[in-house]
Amino acid sequence: MLRDIIRILSNDGITVGLADERGELAACYMGVAQLDVGKRTDVIDSCPKAYALSMLIRTMSPDLICADEIGSEEDFRALSQACLCGSAVICTAHGGSIDDVLKRCEMNGAENIFERYILLEGRKAPGKIIGVFNKKGERLC
């Protein structure tokens, strides 16, 4: 789902910086994305996510920063820096509930980074949306 969002926004004119630490989103080979992440997406892969995020902010000035499976303190710090530099952020994070994800953000001082949270079903029904929540964890739909 994240790759599809990136591709759609990128092809619609938004410059995207993608930190693809394990190569799961773009699957780059010799510097070329093998999966379609859009024509305005710059990818940094195979390096620590926080470092890739910082490099994207400094060198590419993207409208949007994207990353998969954020969780470390360094990840949140880099995302906070991206917001301060004017980039929007779309990320995924694992959690059993919206409360789990909100607590992780709060523990890392990142409670103001995200405006919306989309909770997905998981392995039972990948990509199925359970709910959309605001930054306070209140269900919007």
UniProtKB/TrEMBL annotation:
Keywords: ATP-binding, Nucleotide-binding
Keyword Nucleotide-binding tagged: yes
Gene Ontology molecular function: any one: ATP binding
Keyword Nucleus: no
Any Pfam family matching the protein: Spore_III_AA
Residue span(s) of domain Stage III sporulation protein AA AAA+ ATPase: 1-140
InterPro entries linked: P-loop_NTPase, Spore_III_AA_AAA+_ATPase
Database matches in PANTHER family: KINASE-RELATED (PTHR20953), P-LOOP CONTAINING NUCLEOSIDE TRIPHOSPHATE HYDROLASES SUPERFAMILY PROTEIN (PTHR20953:SF3)
Name the UniProt record assigns to this protein: Stage III sporulation protein AA AAA+ ATPase domain-containing protein
Lineage: unclassified sequences, metagenomes, ecological metagenomes
